[in-house]
Amino acid sequence: MENINPPLWLSLPFVALLATIALAPLFFSDWWGKHYPKVAGGLAAIVVGYYIFGLQAGPRVLETGEEYISFICLVGSLFVVSGGIHINVKGEATPFANVLFLLVGAVVANLLGTTGASMLLIRPWLRMNKYRVTAHHVCFFIFIVSNVGGCLTPIGDPPLFLGFLQGVPFWWVAKQCLPMWVTGVGILLLMFYIVDRINFSRAPKEVREKETAHEKWTFTGMGNLFFLTVIIGAVFISRPPFLREALMIVAAVGSYLTTKKSVHESNQFSFNPIKEVAILFIGIFATMMPTLDWLAHNASTLLGANPAPGVFYFGSGALSSVLDNAPTYLSFLSALFGTSGTTDIHTLLALHPHFIIAISIGSVFFGANTYIGNGPNFMVKAIADHQKVHTPTFLDYVWKFTLPFMLPMLLIVWVVFLRG
């Protein structure tokens, strides 16, 4: 990445886009539904124009464009392929069955990535709770499956994959971060069980007893597992350029053409959710460039000479809540190189493992704090909205779910594992 130090005021378009995403659906929902492409595109154009003509940083814009293409190819292809797999569930899920499903999702997130697991499991999750599905079902799914669950392997979440490319051994993360994974997932599952038990007890008796014996666990469209494997395998291809993205597109097209229409109809499949995500993330990727570049240029100065692991945990986490967690991970890793006096990753792993753990856990866990903290978050919301499920607004998500549920878990992880 070029060493670019943009003026801090150039982050204002990103702040404006973030504020608009948060507030416009609440106060101007009809206007936002019609004009959000113009808002995202206009703010992106301001930043891109300044980078090209003001900073003479055209290569940085191209680099961001390539990152966006990789992101949307991955998310889009997984969306299409998962839309061709229909998992029908038996009966109305009890709180215990829901906890078991989320736990399985947390494990699967390390095998398919948080995006792959989210796209595969969100539809059956909504169906198995269809008689009483509400906001907490969507939010805890995002917390556990779309974020926290994927911290054990480089496949799980993009920041960990970047760490793997930097030289962190594949199984090092699982070995070092397993206690945090057990603690984080365990606390969230316990919280979910309590909330879901209350929701279940308040449901009408006919809903609680709705075991719908005519429904069974059935799986259709399983041929799409082949296309899913192609996409996950393509993640590890870096050369030649765009071969990875080409394979993902081919897999998505193959899946869409070979999937029976009845399967798509059962999943209520349409391209509207991925369209909304693709447009909004054009603005997000473009407008967050100045913030990421400014951070990369000034991180070592901001962190000081001898920062504690908690500084890296909360620093990388806070920014991963609203920025792309992958470049945030790299920025704090670069800052760690600077403050530790070594650029050898193996030396850092041997002498300062808690700092690498802090950056890894912070980047992955905190991504659940907002809808834009991690790619699958917004996709899950879009799919739930498309299926007429009540989802909280951007601000309600933070105030009603992140602060009372995510924040205590994040603080406990810090106190137990990373304080001092």
Descriptors:
single chain; 420 residues; mainly alpha; two-stranded antiparallel sheet; 1% strand
Shape: globular
Structural class: mainly alpha
How would you characterize the largest beta sheet?
2 strands, antiparallel
Task: Output mean pLDDT.
Answer: 87
Helical content class: over 70%
Radius of gyration: 21 Å
Quick synopsis:
The protein has 420 residues and is mainly α. It has one domain (8-418). 72% of the residues lie in helices and 1% in strands.
Q: What does this protein look like?
A:
With 420 residues, the protein is an all-alpha fold. The chain has one domain. It is built from 19 helices and 2 strands. The protein has helices at residues 12-27, 29-54, 58-82, 95-128, 135-144, 158-165, 172-202, 205-208, 224-234, 243-258, 261-266, 272-287, 289-303, 309-320, 325-340, 345-351, 353-365, 375-386, 394-418; strands at residues 86-88, 218-220. A two-stranded antiparallel sheet has the order 1-2. Helix 2 packs parallel to helix 12 (272-287) and helix 3 (58-82) packs parallel to helix 10 (243-258). The longest helix is centred in the N-terminal third of the chain and has 34 residues, at 95-128. The radius of gyration is 21 Å and the shape is globular.
